[in-house]
């Protein structure tokens, strides 16, 4: 084994991975901005802030004493002199009672929520962390609490402890513990299995340290979400118990108690009950709106930019704008070519950043040809493939330049109905992970038949017969019986065979396969590659095959395109490109790949990291990592030059790279 | 031949059945839910071969790891290689059999003196980001083992963290950042630095480069080779990628369905495979005709 080991002590500046960390976050709005940009949540936040501020300011506001009775002025209506909101049945000032009462209700609700969160979260954390018997005991206890209707349970607890604000609070805490315990246990279980938990154990941390520093910070968002969505309830529950006379005891004011007092007077003096009722309503609305907003911000599933649904077709710039650059290029031999991409540019707009995922790709697929696209992650190979039939998610994706011609027909500007007639019919896809691309609830036969019925208008029974034939074609044993199987009943290799059967369903002219064997074991991969190759030749379909694995491309493809930083840097026949590469990136990439049977070969890593597509360097994107780079490499547009028969390379130093 | 640092004898590990579950079971759990599906159990059992009988992830494995060398363990998903790795570092206990580290049972050490065990053996995980706590800075991640395993004071920790960062070729100022700010390759360097922080003799590398792009994979492989030479480390390198295993290993074992089907020196395994399964694996690697064409 020979490595060119980096000598860090000698040349610190040139050693690998000294580039700045990838600015993953840059374009993504902060949590606070996302919360305040949600208008509903900001309204709730403002409402809540006003109520809380007034309640907090109660001692310094010029209010009447809330507990002084003045029977002479009882039931004064609102806006009477000295009593802005009137007086109640014993002549106490309603405004003062309202503000002091809100203070009490808020304090009790928040204190109850925090305590329930603390106890419930602790139970959930430890149950999930220790598992087994601890989990069983704790969670069965929680189940017992949940077996009672919660209001009845709260009433029973207050009945046992006796009425009073503190006891009402205890009751509310107890009935709310299960919500926290369950939510936190679920979140913890997901974290407990993470590798960093094992790493913490290996770092010698004690159980308590692991819970406190590894687990807790990672389940905190769940606790906050549960808290923000239940604190409103708890205030309502406190009010409910006070309303029934079990909470705050006279003369102390709280919102529920005031509502209860006013209930008997609803005919005579409706304002006595209505005013606290309105405040409870506003408080609940405010808290729930903020809670929903917080949940949207903290829930990682919603983080990448709201719940926006992707459009059925990638957005594209108008044709004249897209094709501006094309006029200078030679016109291709359109109608005979099944697929031709010219100068394709697909960008993503995330936050303020523009990610140039595909920055001008030319690609031609001839009938029956196997075209490979190879590149590392972020090189734009998948986005190129998805752009063909407008499958790039919009937002944030957008095709901003170039054209995609299918027998001369521009697919970028085509209406959705036209694209849908081509998708899965003339051009079909096979994706990387067959477990997520197959619907788990529909049998594999139905899923294959669906495409046949859609495009060929065959009746169900006939389509199912075709599905069986296709399963046989992809060598699934006992196809007649397995046609009714569900995806989870198949192995990974068999699922990918089903994915291929779906792609073949309508005898496509072109199959686009995006890393179809990456998730598979090597022996299964070999079978799938053999199958794809046989089927392609049998049926005369062209293949666009995308992979990070040079070996797979070499095995299967006629021509190969090497992508780097959103552009093709080298293309040509597989033997030429992989046998005698001319772009420095291709050369160094091949030098990185360990080859079986050549263990004595030097593994020569490329220094540095691939560029982020939102900060591509001018000129050649590989220049910052290239040993041949000089001033010429970072200026202007570098073209893809022909250097051999069909062999093209995008490098100003191509004359230096010949072996 | 150098002395044996770790040896496994007839190690068996079962899941399910007796219900000996554990909070840190790891990804082998992926098969567990299929047994919970009640009515589907028998059908699933018929297909996957796991009915009510416990699943044997590791089925009677014996092997020896020699000091200063690299043992490659190669096999496909479900062959038990990750379960074996977790038993070697004491995260899992064998159902039967014994793993010994310098003559002491790993299982016993894990129970009685976990600190001592983890000062000797460490692990690097497959998913570079998944093995770093997203809410801790790199410094906090690297200082945890220094404090817990070596009881270093703050000043010593600071110096050692700087030294570790330089060992894995990362800039010193990266220590104040959080894992999500790093690329996969950089995150894996941090994972390696965390393992090195314990100053171990043996590192179990569980698919350490599988999640990385080829150019980054080459950087990490090169770093591992460099560290082994400089720090006199012993590696157990687990991978499904035969070419990678061939590049880095001195000895190789091939696992299939929980058992070792072939073992030997790197040359023996790759040049002259004897077992049918090893031959199948080798013949399945794509792109060989290219290597032949150029050789």
Report on the architecture of this protein.
The complex is a heterodimer of chains A (659) and B (295). By secondary structure, chain A is an alpha/beta fold. Among the domains of chain A are: 36-59 and 82-302, MetI-like fold, CATH 1.10.3720; 444-506. In chain A, 47% of the residues lie in helices and 13% in strands. In chain A, a hairpin with a 2-residue loop joins strand 3 (339-350) and strand 4. In chain A, helix 7 crosses helix 8 (207-243) and helix 8 packs parallel to helix 9. The longest helix of chain A has 37 residues, at 94-130. Chain B is of the alpha/beta class and 295 residues long. Chain B has one domain (4-294): P-loop containing nucleotide triphosphate hydrolases (Rossmann fold, 3-Layer(aba) Sandwich). Chain B contains 13 helices and 10 strands. Chain B has helices at residues 33-36, 41-48, 81-88, 106-112, 114-120, 138-150, 154-167, 184-197, 214-231, 242-248, 266-271, 276-284, 288-294; strands at residues 4-15, 55-66, 70-74, 96-101, 104-105, 121-124, 202-206, 234-239, 251-256, 259-265. A 6-stranded mixed beta sheet of chain B has the order 6-7-8-3-9-10, with helices on both faces. Chain B has a 4-stranded antiparallel beta sheet with strand order 2-1-4-5. In chain B, helix 9 links the parallel strand 7 and strand 8. The two termini of chain B are 32 Å apart. At the A-B interface, helix 3, helix 7, helix 8, helix 19 and helix 20 of A face helix 2, helix 5, helix 6, helix 8 and helix 9 of B.
């Amino acid at each position: 084994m020979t490595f060119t080991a980096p000598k860090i002590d000698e040349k610190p500046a040139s050693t690998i991975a000294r580039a700045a960390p990838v600015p993953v976050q840059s374009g993504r709005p902060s949590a606070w901005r996302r919360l305040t940009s949600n208008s509903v949540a900001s309204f709730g936040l403002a409402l809540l802030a006003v109520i809380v501020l007034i309640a907090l300011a109660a001692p310094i506001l010029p209010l009447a004493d809330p507990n002084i009775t003045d029977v002479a002025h009882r039931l004064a209506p609102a806006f009477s002199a000295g009593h802005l909101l009137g007086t109640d049945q014993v002549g106490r000032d309603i405004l003062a009672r309202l503000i002091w009462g809100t203070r009490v209700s808020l304090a009790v609700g928040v204190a109850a929520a925090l305590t329930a969160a603390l106890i419930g979260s602790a139970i959930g954390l430890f149950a999930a962390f220790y598992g087994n018997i601890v989990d069983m005991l704790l969670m069965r206890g929680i189940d017992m609490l949940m077996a009672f209707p919660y209001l009845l349970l709260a009433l029973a607890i207050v009945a046992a402890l006796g009425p009073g604000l503190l006891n009402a609070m205890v009751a509310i805490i107890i009935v709310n513990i299960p919500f926290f315990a369950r939510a936190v246990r679920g979140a913890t279980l997901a974290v407990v299995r993470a590798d960093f938990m094992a790493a913490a154990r290996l770092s010698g941390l004690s159980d308590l340290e692991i819970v406190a520093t590894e687990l807790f910070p990672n389940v905190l968002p769940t606790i906050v979400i549960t808290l923000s969505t239940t604190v409103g309830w708890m205030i309502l529950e406190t009010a409910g118990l006070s309303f029934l006379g079990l909470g705050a005891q006279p003369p102390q004011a709280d919102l529920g108690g005031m509502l209860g007092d006013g209930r008997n007077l609803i005919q005579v003096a409706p304002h006595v009950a209505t005013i606290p009722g309105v405040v409870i309503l506003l408080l609940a609305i405010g808290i729930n709106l903020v809670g929903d907003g917080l949940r949207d911000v903290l829930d990682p599933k919603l983080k990448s930019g709201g719940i926006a649904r992707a459009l059925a077709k990638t957005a594209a710039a108008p044709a004249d704008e897209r094709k501006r650059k094309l006029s200078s290029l030679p016109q291709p031999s359109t109608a005979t070519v099944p697929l031709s991409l010219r100068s394709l540019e697909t960008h993503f707009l995330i936050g303020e950043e523009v990610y140039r995922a595909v920055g001008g790709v030319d690609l031609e697929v001839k009938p029956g040809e196997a075209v490979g696209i190879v590149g590392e992650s972020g090189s734009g190979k998948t986005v190129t493939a998805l752009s063909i039939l407008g499958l790039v998610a919009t937002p944030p994706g957008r095709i901003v330049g170039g054209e995609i011609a299918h027998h001369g027909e521009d697919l970028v500007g085509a209406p959705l109905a036209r694209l849908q007639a081509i998708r899965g019919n003339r051009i079909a896809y096979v994706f990387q992970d067959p477990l997520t691309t197959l619907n788990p609830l529909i049998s594999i036969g139905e899923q294959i038949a669906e495409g046949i019925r859609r495009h060929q208008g065959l009746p169900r029974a006939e389509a199912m017969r075709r599905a069986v034939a296709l399963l046989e074609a992809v060598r699934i044993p006992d196809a007649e019986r397995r046609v009714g199987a569900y995806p989870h009943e198949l192995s990974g290799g068999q699922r990918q065979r089903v994915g291929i059967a779906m792609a073949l369903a309508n005898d496509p002219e072109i199959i686009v396969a995006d890393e179809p064997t990456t998730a598979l074991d090597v022996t299964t991969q070999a079978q799938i590659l053999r199958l794809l190759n046989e089927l392609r030749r049998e049926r005369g379909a062209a293949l666009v095959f995308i992979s990070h694995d040079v070996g797979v491309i070499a095995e299967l493809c006629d021509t190969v395109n090497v992508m780097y930083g959103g552009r093709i840097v080298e293309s040509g026949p597989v033997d030429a490109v992989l046998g005698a590469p001319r772009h420095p990136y291709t050369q160094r990439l091949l030098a990185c790949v360990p080859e079986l049977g050549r263990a004595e070969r030097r593994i020569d890593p490329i220094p540095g990291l691939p560029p982020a597509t939102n900060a591509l360097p001018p000129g050649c994107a590989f220049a910052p990592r290239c040993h041949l780079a000089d001033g010429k490499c970072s200026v202007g547009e570098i073209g893809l030059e022909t250097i051999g028969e069909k062999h093209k390379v995008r490098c100003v130093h191509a004359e230096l790279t010949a072996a | 031949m150098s002395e044996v640092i770790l040896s496994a004898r007839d190690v068996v590990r079962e899941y399910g059945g007796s219900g000996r579950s554990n909070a840190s079971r790891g990804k082998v759990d992926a098969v567990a839910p299929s047994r919970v599906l009640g009515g589907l159990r028998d059908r699933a059992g018929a297909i996957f071969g796991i009915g009510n009988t416990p699943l044997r992830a590791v089925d009677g494995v014996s092997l020896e790891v020699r000091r200063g060398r690299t043992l490659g363990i190669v096999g496909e998903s479900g062959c038990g290689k990750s379960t074996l790795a977790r038993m070697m570092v004491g995260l899992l206990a064998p159902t039967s059999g014994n793993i010994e580290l310098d003559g002491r049972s790993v299982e016993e050490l894990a129970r009685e003196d976990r600190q001592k065990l983890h000062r000797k053996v460490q692990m690097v995980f497959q998913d570079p980001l998944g093995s770093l706590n997203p809410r801790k800075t790199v410094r906090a991640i690297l200082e945890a083992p220094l404090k817990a395993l070596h009881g270093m004071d703050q000043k010593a920790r600071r110096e050692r963290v700087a030294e570790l960062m330089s060992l894995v070729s990362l800039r010193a100022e990266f220590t104040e950042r959080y894992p999500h700010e790093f690329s996969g390759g950089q995150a894996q360097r941090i994972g390696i630095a965390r393992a090195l922080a314990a100053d171990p003799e043996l590192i179990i590398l569980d698919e350490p480069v599988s999640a990385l792009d080829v150019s980054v994979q080459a950087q990490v492989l090169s770093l591992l080779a460099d560290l082994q030479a400089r720090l006199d480390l012993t590696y157990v390198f687990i991978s499904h990628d035969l070419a990678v295993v061939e590049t880095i290993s001195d000895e190789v074992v091939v696992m299939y369905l929980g058992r070792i089907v072939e073992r030997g020196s790197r040359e023996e395994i790759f040049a002259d495979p004897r077992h049918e399964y090893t031959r199948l694996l080798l013949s399945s690697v794509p792109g060989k005709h290219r290597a032949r064409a150029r050789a």
